[in-house]
Amino acid sequence: MVTKVHGLLFHYFQYNLQADMTRRQLEYEAQRVRQLMTENLGTSEQIAARHDARLQRIHMNEAEMLRLQQRHREQQVRFMKVEFRGSEIEKKS
Questions:
Q1: In total, how many domains does the chain have?
Q2: 41: containing domain
Q3: 87 located within any domain
Q4: Cβ contacts of residue 57 below 8 Å, gap of 6+?
Q5: What tens-digit pLDDT sequence spans the chain (93 residues)?
């Protein structure tokens, strides 16, 4: 009976040691990945700042595009008015 209990305890502790070693290895690898990401991409605050700057540039580009589209439409309307007036003048002559 004592031998059986001793064998069970041995397997239990051996399993726990293996699980602990695996956990430590995974923690080490995760830390290394975090370090590499920080080296390559910067801190999370730096990443967020770059993201916000990109969004701001996108919004500025969208606003400029809308402004240019409006200006183009206005020019088309003016051109059509001039063209229409020109055709009326030709008809009267």
A1: 1
A2: 2-67
A3: no
A4: none
A5: 656 666 666 666 677 888 889 999 999 999 999 999 999 999 999 999 999 999 999 999 999 999 999 999 999 998 888 777 766 666 665
